[in-house]
Structures are given as C-alpha cells and as structure tokens.
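Journal club side-thread
Mid-discussion, someone asked how the predicted structure for our own chain would compare to the paper's figures. Pasting it here so we can look after the session.
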Amino acid sequence: MIIKNFLITGRPGIGKTTCVLRIISLLSKQGLRIGGFITREVRERGKRIGFLIQTFPEMEEVYLASTRYDNGPRIGKYIVNLDNLENVGVSSIKRALESSNIVVIDEIGPMELLSNVFKKIVLEAFNSDKPIVATIHFKARRYPFGKRLLARSDIIVYELTLDNREHIYRKITDDILDMINFKGLKRNFV
C-alpha cells in the first residue's frame, strides 16, 4: 500500500503546529492547494487560556476550547466547543477534500476525539486519495480511534524531538512530494 497519510507526533509544546506551518509554506510555494485547519494556543499574560481552530485557506478562527467556557465537555482545565469543531474544523476538512491537493488536520487529540463527526471525517480523509498531513497527540495510542489510525499500513509517523524539529519539516515535505510524484519541482529545501 502507498503511504499517503503523514502523521506528526511529539510531546506537547515541541512544535508540531510550527512544523505543519513550515510544511504548508513549502508546499504552497510549489503551487499546491492546501486546505484544512491548524490549532493555535491562546495566551493571556503568559498563561494558556485556550485553543483556536484556524482554517486554510479561509483563515477563519474560532475557539476549540477555553478555560472561560462553562458548558461542554472538559479536558483538563479546558471546556471544548464541539459546535465550533464540527461546524468550522470538520467543514474545512470537507472543503479540502473537494478542492485542495493536500489536507491538513492539526490535531487529532483528546479534545477532537470527543466528536464522532470529527472522527468520521478524519477516516474519510485518510481513506481518500488525497495526501493528509496531520498531527496526532502523543497519547493517541490510549484511545481506540488513535490505535486504529496508527495501525494503518498507509501512514508514516514522524516523532518531533528537540534534536530534529528544526529540520524534519523538510524531510516530511520531500516525502509528501515524492508520494504525489510531483514533477518540475525546485527542491532546494532538503
């Protein structure tokens, strides 16, 4: 089976989203259309108070989770907004499957796995013919859905570490471009 699903994992704060943003930048420079979403921290006075979903290419932003919500499922100190995840995050994946060359899903983790709608679109994306670039929580193996994804034969998992985080995005980008057999490429980033 062809590897077409590229998963990035690593401990919290190691730079998974930064890695994805670097990959998006390099792939976009090649003229490829990127769709999906990333998740960004929201900090106030140095303290993390939540997470935003930011869609591509629309750049729509909504809260995924916040310490200030009082209604919804709780993960640690955060209350998750499943409506935002499903109406904005899931919708961005659907649009990417229709009109993008590459689908980005950042992140597949405990907050997102609270949604069956999210899990369904992730499987649809992984089963599609589109390359997927996704981050997956380092504890994903603790969840049945995470185990299921990680057991697939069409994935490759890259673990981000302090030693490789400044350069691994180039290798991942090159692996994606090799997978799609991209012609006419100026690969001076490896």
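Post-session note: The chain is about 35% helix and 30% strand.
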